[in-house]
Specification:
The chain contains ten helices and 18 strands. The chain is of the alpha/beta class. The strands form four sheets. The chain has a six-stranded mixed beta sheet, with helices on both faces. A five-stranded mixed beta sheet has the order 3-1-8-5-6. InterPro entries: G_OBG (IPR031167), GTP-bd (IPR006073), GTP-bd_Obg/CgtA (IPR014100), GTP-bd_prot_GTP1/OBG_C_sf (IPR036346), GTP1-OBG_CS (IPR006074), GTP1_OBG_dom (IPR006169), GTP1_OBG_dom_sf (IPR036726), OBG_GTPase (IPR045086).
């Protein structure tokens, strides 16, 4: 089982709302007590929260299915149901949330940032809340609304100021261990680092974070090696430091060709061309490493990059390197636009916006009319179609909203097929004779207009 996971697919389900209660108050000497059915409770939400103490998505890799609590149903005596429990999922700082098709939902940066990713369903109204002067004792209640269900992709993009890039065994982990309190695994074989390591560095009065990205090789952006998995961790970095092994014994390897290969992979990945670069010629404590560094220093400087000759073992050149990186980070922070307070934007609905649409669709059997809108779809989900009075109440609501008038305008005729909603839609044959008129109601729980 992996110990570090930076990309997972979550299957989320918010809680369903509780059903409303149908109840009539019955007490001795009070024969007309009236309806007293309570409302159902709200379903729980699924909330993502940035937690500084969370560094991996491993827990969600192991348990990708998360569900919030359902609201409980109402009861007689005007007792409302309890709300369902929210599910709070802690994620690392720098987590990007998107849909499986790639659409970005949110970018969670900053401790305490919250996002309600799945909303719980509303609780259904009890018959006490549905009572009116014309419908004094409703024999029905509304059902709880289903909660949101969706799949989301969480991707961790480390929030680091400086990213160390380079070939495997270039000495990146040793460098982080020498300049910070981080203690990554260090060994003399390729791909020792299997997950990004973060270290905190202090250079004067500047504190910044530095990330050790697992070794890149040629073709990493296309899936070779480990680097393609972790290239996303350099997206947020203010600067990139090329760590070059000046004491490698591999044939065909030299600092210039190593830098060219890494730069080609970064270019293929995209979006990193504007990041300042720094060249770090590592392992100069070895005589051969010092000679090679002297040989390639001028060629690298010709690219306009600062060059530093360092040794993680003897700590030569590390102080100068850290102060250079601190200067770059400080400049990037100063140039960044100041964070603006969150604005509350009011978007009132247009006067002529009815909140729904009616479209005519052609099918192999002819045509049908589809009604889409928040209110009609919610009302359909909350209707108990086994209760005639509840169906009549739905017809009244749709008529008052103007759905029937829009169907007439769209060319609908009695008997035409009408669909309300998208997935899990309700299909029925339209009968325009069912019009609002609660005075036509029969006994409780029935509606003579539906006979």
């Amino acid at each position: 089982m992996p110990s570090f996971v930076d990309r997972v697919v979550l299957h989320l389900a918010a809680g369903n709302g509780g059903h409303g209660c149908v109840s009539v108050h019955r007490e001795k000497f009070k024969p007309l007590g009236g309806p007293d059915g309570g409302n159902g409770g709200r379903g729980g939400d699924v909330v993502l929260v940035v937690d500084p103490n969370t560094t991996t998505l491993l827990d969600y890799h192991r348990r990708p299915h998360r569900r919030a609590g359902n609201g409980t149903g109402g009861e007689g005596g005007h007792r409302h149901g309890a709300d369902g429990a929210d599910v709070v999922l802690k994620v690392p700082d720098g987590t990007a949330v998107s849909r499986p098709d790639g659409e970005v939902i949110a970018d969670l940066v900053g401790a305490g940032t919250k996002l309600v990713i799945a909303h719980g369903g509303r609780g259904g109204l009890g018959n006490a809340a549905l009572a009116s002067p014309r419908r004094k004792a409703p024999g029905f209640a509304l059902l709880g609304e289903p909660g949101d269900q969706l799949d989301v992709v969480l991707e961790l993009k480390s929030v680091a100021d400086v990213g160390l890039v380079g070939f495997p065994s270039a000495g990146k982990s040793s460098l982080i261990a020498a300049v910070s309190a981080a203690r990554p695994k260090i060994a003399d074989y390729p791909f020792t680092t299997l997950a990004p390591n973060l270290g905190v560095v202090e250079a004067g009065d500047v504190r910044f974070t530095i990330a050790d990205v697992p070794g890149l090789i040629e073709g990493a952006s296309e899936g070779r090696g480990l680097g393609h998995t972790f290239l996303r961790h350099v997206e947020r970095c203010a600067a990139l430091a090329h760590v070059v092994d000046c004491a490698t014994l591999e044939p065909g390897r030299d600092p210039i060709s190593d830098i060219d290969v890494i730069e080609a992979e970064l270019e293929r990945y995209g979006g990193l061309a504007d990041r300042p670069r720094v060249a770090v010629l590592n392992k100069v404590d070895i005589p051969e490493g010092r000679e090679l560094a002297d040989f390639v220093r001028d060629d690298i400087r010709a690219r306009g990059w600062p060059v530093f000759e360092v040794s993680a073992t003897s700590r030569d050149g590390l102080r100068e390197l850290m102060f250079e990186l601190a200067g770059i980070v400080s400049a990037a922070r100063a140039a960044a636009e100041p964070a603006e307070p969150t604005r509350i934007v009011l978007r009132p609905r247009a006067v002529d916006d009815g909140g729904f649409t009616v479209t005519k669709e052609h099918t192999p059997d002819g045509y049908r009319f589809r009604v889409r809108g928040t209110k009609p779809e919610r009302w359909v989900h909350q209707t108990d179609f086994g209760n005639d009075e509840a169906v009549g109440y739905l017809a009244d609501r749709l008529a008052r909203l103007g759905v029937e008038d829009e169907l007439f305008k769209a060319g609908a005729e009695p008997g035409d097929e009408v669909v309300i909603g998208g997935e899990n839609a309700v299909v029925f044959d339209w009968e325009p004779t069912i019009q609002a008129g609660a005075e036509q109601l029969g006994p409780r729980g029935t509606d003579s207009r539906l006979e």
